[in-house]
Amino acid sequence: MAKSPAKSRAFPTLALETVLIQRVAGPVCGVDEAGRGPWAGPVSAAAVILNADDLPAGIDDSKALTAARREALEIEIKARAVAWGVGFASVEEIHELNILHATGLAMCRAIEQLAVRPVAALVDGNYRFKLPCEIQTVVGGDGLSLSIAAASILAKTARDRLMIELDGRYPGYGFASHKGYNAPAHQAALKVLGPCPAHRRGWSPIKALLEEA
């Protein structure tokens, strides 16, 4: 019996942007974050208003792209978008506010960096962050909306670069490779070195190590 052909994955489009732009009669940005789950480093967010007449080819969910492809697209997006912005919330702000509110803060900072003020934003996920414009949440948005996918790329590349910088500041943890996420090498380094200032001290594994010290 012949196998059914594999179902091809849909790629992001500007369909959601087009509908929202018609409704709000103004610029619409896509917003996404990177780094909500790691044990170390800040959370980042990006906002992008794309030019529908000058789209870089190959924009997709950052998780579906190689690091080299993300970096190449980052350059193109920044060069050809109507506007783009990147924001961060520090490990201290994550500890003070919690990761959800810190993510919203990073998103606000990203939108504030835009050279063109958006009337509305398409935001990946289902949480309605308090942002300085109208928002429409989109579950799985980085795979549906080109603007959100572009934002996911900028948020990811910006955070990755920062984690590489932190690797130089706090050597031995492997931040340049695992970017602060839970990984065997990260766990092994923590057992030997203990947490450093880049670690999220409110995270259970890090909190436990600090209490043992």
Give a description of the structure.
It contains eight helices and five strands. Strand 1 and strand 2 (43-49) form a beta hairpin. It has helices at residues 15-24, 67-80, 91-97, 99-112, 146-169, 175-178, 184-193, 204-212; strands spanning 28-34, 43-49, 83-89, 120-124, 134-138. Helix 3 packs across helix 4 (99-112). 43% of the residues lie in helices and 15% in strands. The chain has a single domain (15-212), classed as Nucleotidyltransferase, domain 5, CATH 3.30.420.10. It has a five-stranded mixed sheet. The protein is of the alpha/beta class and 213 residues long. InterPro entries: RNase_HII, RNase_HII/HIII, RNase_HII/HIII_dom, RNaseH-like_sf, RNaseH_sf. It comes from Brevundimonas albigilva. Pfam families: RNase_HII (PF01351).
Helices, strands, pairings?
Blueprint: H1 15-24, E1 28-34, E2 43-49, H2 67-80, E3 83-89, H3 91-97, H4 99-112, E4 120-124, E5 134-138, H5 146-169, H6 175-178, H7 184-193, H8 204-212
Parallel strand pairs: 1-4, 4-5
Antiparallel strand pairs: 1-2, 2-3
Helix pairs in contact: 2-5, 3-4
Function: Endonuclease that specifically degrades the RNA of RNA-DNA hybrids.
Keywords: Cytoplasm, Endonuclease, Hydrolase, Manganese, Metal-binding, Nuclease
Catalytic activity: Endonucleolytic cleavage to 5'-phosphomonoester
Low-confidence stretches: none
What pattern of helices and strands is seen along the backbone? HEEHEHHEEHHHH
The number of helical segments is 8
| Range of strand content | 5-15%
Helices and strands: which structural class?
alpha/beta
Task: Output the CATH homologous superfamily.
Answer: Ribonuclease H-like superfamily/Ribonuclease H
Would you report the number of β strands? 5
InterPro entries: RNase_HII, RNase_HII/HIII, RNase_HII/HIII_dom, RNaseH-like_sf, RNaseH_sf
GO molecular function: RNA-DNA hybrid ribonuclease activity
Function: Endonuclease that specifically degrades the RNA of RNA-DNA hybrids.
Main location: cytoplasm
